[in-house]
């Protein structure tokens, strides 16, 4: 019986260019976690932060989580996951679940490698490829010509859906920008719109009605993520599908949205929401609530999870940590293809990690 042995972490600060979405973040804190079992096999997990707090997450892994799980049987990981969740519950989910997520990803990577299987085959295959939508070529700083060019490049590359950003320039201007993109690409391309929590309810109601006229597929994070009732009212009054999830942590927060009819598309982020273990629970909750999943960020990891469940029609093409990867997601005819290497298969560039190492 293999036991969890050493757990090592590293912290990297990766600068973000101007073409990295609409959150306004200028860098991403990447926390890598390497788990080694007593046979010498390793698994790599990670979490990230866009708004600070990464040091607290790293410290939690280095101290409490390492002490809790080191020496425990690898095949008892589901029980260990619950033990860690219980012991850190009073800390709140903001630090505890990202820390547990990184450890959980490392354990699943290790288990898949021990079986010699890519992660999606280790979990069980529902699909060999998953459609991918373009998301990294639309920011508030771009003018309309640049937005159109970015969308058209995605279409030329075979993608059939593209996400635009809104909420920072005023609703009327955003409608005009989105309308110009729709006119340029025609009706054969699905458009999604992400507001990054920037609207109030009256503006969101007006805005969503205009988006419906432009045949927008979903409206993402129009309001603050803790305003579940506002999202419910918006969904009821406009009928436009609402997508949420990058700021939600754990299955209970996602369940509240479904129970209130406040979202139709859930976007859990595995390095934040509880890892593979919790992500798959969220998938089951979504399936029971007639919702679909479209995981947030990082298609190189998310392709494995999306291919392992029956209700995940999309992964997101977004270059969050491309600068430290040796290989990015393979796309064939608009669909993401999981790598066949054992584990999750992410290949990190050691030189880039060294360059962005944060020595604390």
From TrEMBL:
InterPro entries per the UniProt record, alphabetical: Enolase-like_C_sf, Enolase-like_N, Enolase_C-like, Mandel_Rmase/mucon_lact_enz_CS, Mandelate_racemase_C, Mandelate_racemase_N_dom, RHMD-like
The protein's required cofactors: Mg(2+)
Gene3D superfamilies in UniProt: Enolase-like C-terminal domain, Enolase-like, N-terminal domain
Keywords: Magnesium, Metal-binding
Originating species: Streptomyces hokutonensis
Pfam family, one: MR_MLE_C
Taxonomic lineage of the native organism: Bacteria, Bacillati, Actinomycetota, Actinomycetes, Kitasatosporales
Domain Mandelate racemase/muconate lactonizing enzyme C-terminal: 144-241
Database matches in PANTHER family: ENOLASE SUPERFAMILY, MANDELATE RACEMASE, MITOCHONDRIAL ENOLASE SUPERFAMILY MEMBER 1
Protein name per its UniProtKB record: Mandelate racemase/muconate lactonizing enzyme family protein
Disulfide bond recorded as keyword: no
């Amino acid at each position: 019986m293999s036991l969890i042995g050493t757990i090592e972490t590293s912290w990297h600060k990766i600068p973000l260019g101007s073409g990295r979405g609409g959150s306004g973040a200028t860098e991403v804190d990447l926390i890598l976690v390497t788990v080694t079992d007593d046979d010498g096999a390793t698994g790599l997990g990670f979490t990230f932060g866009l708004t600070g707090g990464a040091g607290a997450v790293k410290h939690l892994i280095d101290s409490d989580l390492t002490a809790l799980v080191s020496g425990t049987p690898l095949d008892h990981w589901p029980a260990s996951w619950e033990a860690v969740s219980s012991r850190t519950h009073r800390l709140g989910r903001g630090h505890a679940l990202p820390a547990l997520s990184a450890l959980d990803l490392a354990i699943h990577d290790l288990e898949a490698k021990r079986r010699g299987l890519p992660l999606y085959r280790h979990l069980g295959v529902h699909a060999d490829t998953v459609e991918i939508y373009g998301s990294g070529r639309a920011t508030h700083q771009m003018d309309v010509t640049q937005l159109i060019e970015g969308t058209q490049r995605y279409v030329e590359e075979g993608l059939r859906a593209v996400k635009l950003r809104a909420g920072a320039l005023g609703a009327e201007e955003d409608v005009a920008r989105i309308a110009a993109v729709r006119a340029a690409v025609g009706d054969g391309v699905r458009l999604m719109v992400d507001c990054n929590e920037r609207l109030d309810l009256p503006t969101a109601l007006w805005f969503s009605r205009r988006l419906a006229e432009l045949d927008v597929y979903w409206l993402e994070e129009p309001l603050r993520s803790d305003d579940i009732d506002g999202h419910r009212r918006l969904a009821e009054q406009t009928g436009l599908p609402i997508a949420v999830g990058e700021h939600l942590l754990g299955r209970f927060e996602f369940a509240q949205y479904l129970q209130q009819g406040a979202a139709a598309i859930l976007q859990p982020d595995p390095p934040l929401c509880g890892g593979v273990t919790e992500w798959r629970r969220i998938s089951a909750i979504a399936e029971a609530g007639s919702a679909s999943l479209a995981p947030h960020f990082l298609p190189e990891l998310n392709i494995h999870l999306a291919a392992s469940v029956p209700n995940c029609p999309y992964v997101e093409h977004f270059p969050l940590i491309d600068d430290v990867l040796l290989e990015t997601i393979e796309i064939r005819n608009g669909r993401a293809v999981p790598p066949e290497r054992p584990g999750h298969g992410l290949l990190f560039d050691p030189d880039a990690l060294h360059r962005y190492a944060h020595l604390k």
